[in-house]
Write a structure and sequence with these properties.
CATH superfamily of the largest domain: Dihydrodipicolinate Reductase, domain 2
Mean pLDDT: 97
Number of strands: 15
Number of domains: 2
CATH class of the largest domain: Alpha Beta
CATH architecture of the largest domain: 2-Layer Sandwich
Order of helices and strands: EHEEEEEHEEHEHEHHEEHEHEEH
Largest sheet: 7 strands, parallel
Strand order of the largest sheet: 5-2-1-6-7-9-8
Helix content: 25-40%
Shape: globular
Radius of gyration: 20 Å
Bound molecules: adenosine-2'-5'-diphosphate
CATH topology of the largest domain: Dihydrodipicolinate Reductase, domain 2
Strand content: 25-35%
Length: 330
């Protein structure tokens, strides 16, 4: 009989937490027992999994005493910094969606179809990357293997669900002419180049995440990469315009063939292209608008779209867990 696993979902009432539940159901993840945690605020509320109701428990220092195999965390950086080591000290494998652990040297940052090979049995805290980064490195890895990537410039168009329910509420309220409560500016009928806090060098933290995490996941510590991250009034589905300069001359047909063969990429031919509405509820990375950059010697442009709450967060985390199971690392 196939083994089943004791799973904890931390941040179960949040947008990604709720999507963990959906993705576990959709992918028929082998669950023997499951427990849902959130803060004191929503302890006692109910969540539904596989048609059954479960009472949400308050996350405390003793929550992991009873033994879990896997904990899926999406409860913010502070919660992760405090509770992931507690879970790991009980032998639980934590897959953490916050940015708290991603750039620590000893922590693996994983997009399974790109760098799952870095994972070992000793990795008890594993970081799930930034949403826009996940959907960008999947096609970038294909390009790098064929033509050696030298430089990348990202421009993102990011949905409000990337900010959780607070972002979605601001967009909904904007339709009714209400002032935003979470964002600094109105997002309805608007867009702004401001995601996460500003840094002293003029970039935002979101842009720095994309730059640092791309290098770490692709294992290219010296890759030149820059980003401008923009919030747009779309509920679900991030889009990224990616400009790439390569070492070797680009053979577009070879690249198109590689995208078409890739099991996690949906390639849009010619004048067809993906939009956020095309990808909602889907676990793949959708790529289109592929063309040579006429201003650079070995340059290309492409457009990558994905469901930021699924492939950009919950699905990628659960794919990491599936890989650990498949490779007997858990
Ligand atoms: P709660 O509903 O109790 O606030 P989002 O990213 O959509 O804002 O969701 C964040 C998730 O993280 C929610 O489930 C939230 O629970 C949970 N959370 C926030 N702070 C804590 C904490 N200190 N301990 C446990 N869960 C937390």
């Amino acid at each position: 009989m196939n083994k089943k696993y004791r799973v904890a979902v931390v941040g179960a009432t949040g947008m990604v937490g709720q999507t963990f539940i959906k993705v576990l159901e959709d992918r028929k993840f082998p669950v023997s027992e499951i427990t849902f945690f959130a803060s004191k605020r929503s302890a006692g509320s109910l969540v539904s999994f596989n048609g059954m109701n479960f009472v949400v428990e308050e996350l405390t220092e003793n929550s992991f005493d009873n033994g879990f195999d896997i904990a899926l965390f999406s409860a913010g950086g502070e919660t992760s910094l405090k509770f992931a080591p507690i879970a790991a000290s009980h032998g639980v494998v934590v897959i953490d969606n916050s940015s708290a652990w991603r750039m620590k040297d000893h922590i693996k940052l994983v997009v399974p179809e790109v760098n799952s090979h870095v994972l070992t049995k000793n990795d008890l805290i594993i970081a799930n990357p930034n949403c826009s980064t996940i959907q960008s490195v999947v096609p970038l890895d294909v390009i790098h293997k064929l033509f050696t990537v030298n430089r990348v410039i990202y421009s993102t168009y990011q949905a409000v669900s990337g900010s959780g329910y607070k972002g979605v509420m601001d967009l909904k309220n904007g339709y009714e002419n209400k002032e935003p409560e979470f964002y600094k500016k109105q997002i309805f009928d608007n867009c702004f180049p401001h995601i996460d806090d500003f840094l002293d060098n003029g970039y935002t933290k979101e842009e720095k995440k994309m730059m640092d995490e791309t290098r770490k996941i692709l294992g290219l510590s010296h890759l030149k990469v820059s980003a401008t991250c923009v919030r747009i009034p779309v509920t679900v589905g991030h889009s990224v315009s990616i400009n790439v300069e390569c070492e070797k001359p680009i053979d577009l047909n070879q690249l198109i063939e590689a995208f078409k063969q890739h099991q996690d990429i949906v390639y849009y031919e010619g004048r067809d292209y993906p939009t956020p509405q095309d990808v909602v509820g889907n676990d793949l990375v959708h790529v289109g608008r592929l063309r040579k950059d006429l201003s650079a010697e070995n340059g290309i442009h492409l457009w990558a779209v994905a469901d930021n709450v699924r492939k950009g967060a919950a699905t990628n985390a659960i794919q990491i867990a599936e890989y650990l199971i498949k490779e007997n690392l858990i």
